[in-house]
Write a structure and sequence with these properties.
The protein is built from two helices and three strands, in the order E-E-E-H-H. The protein is α+β, with helices and mostly antiparallel strands. It has a three-stranded antiparallel sheet with strand order 1-2-3, with helices on one face.
Length: about 90
């Protein structure tokens, strides 16, 4: 699965959050309390997604050869699952 490459940035324009380069538009008219804060939080998280995926892929490759304990293997498995979910392989 491909995605719009980063960097992504969010901005507020006339009450609507725009996630550049045109990936997502949200506004706070959904009727939820603090909808604007939720939209801003969602926009920030989504804007960070390309960077988070890049670091997750790097971390999995760097740490997997050294994981020997069950907890470490579980952490690597969770990392792999997150990468698969982000790339559409899950």
């Amino acid at each position: 699965m491909s995605h719009t490459p980063g960097p992504w940035n969010w901005r507020l324009d006339a009450g609507t959050w725009y996630l550049a380069p045109g990936v997502l538009i949200t506004d706070y008219t959904d009727g939820t309390p603090d909808g604007d804060l939720i939209d801003r939080g969602n926009a920030c998280l989504i804007a960070a997604a390309p960077d988070l995926l890049k670091v997750a892929i790097w971390a999995e490759a760097a740490l997997a050869p050294f994981s020997k304990e069950p907890a470490e293997k579980s952490g690597i498995a969770n990392l792999r699952a997150a990468i698969a979910k982000a790339t559409g392989a899950a």
